Amino acid sequence: MKVALYGATGKAGSRILAELLSRGHQVTAVVRTPSKLATQPSLTVVQGDVSSAEAIAAKIKGFDAVIDSFGPPADDTDQVITVTQHFVDAVTQAEVPRLIVVGGAGSLEVAPGVTVISSGHIPAQWLPIAVSHDKALALLKKSDINWTYFSPAGFFEPGERTGKFRLGKDQLIVGSDGASRISLEDYAIALVDELEKPQNERARFTIGY
């Protein structure tokens, strides 16, 4: 599959890139600084940014799917809302069949009608990015494109590639120890699984142990 990946040098994006390449996909990583990534078989590295829908559309035309792993700066998390709209418009302009977004966990439910955000359990320093991601998801839901929003578990961090995890829809997945966790590596497995065999088109899904 011919895939355009944004955010390929980030924590999640780098794992997604490795997973895509290990499965033989043809990947173009669109990055601000191409020198940060070494070109290798099946990987093309091009310079680009997310400053406008037009900038993105020019890079993604002809691709089978786009993966948005953009991470906003900590002091301006609302950039993720603007960038999500850019991706929606770009996918429309370039007529790309699918957009997969690396999302947030804050909008997942911990009880019927109660999200992680509204539960009051998010530490203050993480609340801005959680709220911004929630608003970005709302933009996708209002769009006409074929989107998938993939929410991680509450704790989303480097770890092992186990291949053993659970998937869900809108409810936070919690383990037997009461914690909600997923490794970046296992998240990447599930995202590429979804790319290859779509189960959540125009929908959100989530993952956890």
From TrEMBL:
Task: List the CDD domains.
Answer: BVR-B_like_SDR_a
Superkingdom, taxonomy of origin: Bacteria
User: Which residue range or ranges hold the NAD(P)-binding domain?
Assistant: 7-194
Q: Which InterPro entries match?
A: NAD(P)-bd_dom, NAD(P)-bd_dom_sf, Polyketide_Oxido-like
Cited Gene3D superfamilies: NAD(P)-binding Rossmann-like Domain (3.40.50.720)
Protein name stated in the entry? NAD(P)-dependent oxidoreductase
What organism does the record attribute this protein to?
Acidicapsa dinghuensis
The major lineage groups are:
Bacteria, Pseudomonadati, Acidobacteriota, Terriglobia, Terriglobales
